[in-house]
Amino acid sequence: MTDQATLDAIDKAVKENDVVLFMKGTPTFPQCGFSSTVVQILDYLGVEYVATNVLESAAVRDGIKQYTNWPTIPQLYVKGEFIGGCDILKEMFENGELKELLSEKGIELAAE
Q1: Could you tell me the residue ranges of all domains in the chain?
Q2: pLDDT (average), residues 72-76
Q3: Which fold is adopted by the domain 4-104?
Q4: pTM to 2 decimals?
Q5: Which residues, other chains included, contact 11 with Cβ-Cβ below 8 Å and sequence gap of 6+?
Q6: What percent of the chain stands above pLDDT 70?
């Protein structure tokens, strides 16, 4: 069970930032293929986001799974809402839903 302080810190990060990615590694050095794929999608779209490396803290790694009741990492949040993991984001990107969702939520994308 994750302590309340960790869950509160996760909640604060999710609510105070427009786009948050909980991932293994960093955007410049992803530590798993799934995290790398999500970083590539976000970078391609030109989305500004805050990344949290769950490998730096077992409490955060376990806490983020508990926070959303979602068993895998990476996890993407937009405007406080859990969007999904790698497979969901990849599918949403490929069919245009991710770009549409980001635009609807007022997230700026790079000039096309």
Answers
A1: 4-104
A2: 97
A3: Glutaredoxin (3.40.30)
A4: 0.94
A5: 67
A6: 96
